[in-house]
Amino acid sequence: xxxxxxxxxxxxxxxxxxxxxxxxxxxxxxxxxxxxxxxxxxxxxxxxxxxxxxxxxxxxxxxxxxxxxxxxxxxxxxxxxxxxxxxxxxxxxxxxxxxxxxxxxxxxxxxxxxxxxxxxxxxxxxxxxxxxxxxxxxxxxxxxxxxxxxxxxxxx
Length: 156
Hints:
By secondary structure, the chain is mainly alpha-helical. 77% of the residues lie in helices and 0% in strands. It contains three helices and no strands.
């Protein structure tokens, strides 16, 4: 019977892993809260607009009075859906940037904790690679966020 051997887990790595997982859980929870807030806001706005548009339908019931209101309901509904999709796209880009920044911070913290004082962190090839990748990701997310600012038009 072969005996399984495992490498001892140093307290530095175990603590680094725990801190990393906690940070990822915190990032996920913050993201979830922002998405829930956005969803509630969009639903509330949509309901308020829809109910306000239905007001003219309470009139006498004459088709000539109702027809323009139905057209207006449709137009406002399309407009609301367009605005909601723009808000969701903008929020997704913001979330991507926040997650990338948070993940970069968590990974850098994990690496510092895991390596301890015995290694020059800045000189490590892994740290340099991670820093380069994090900087590129942050720059790309920033560019996407800037391009998606509400009101901007990029129609060429």
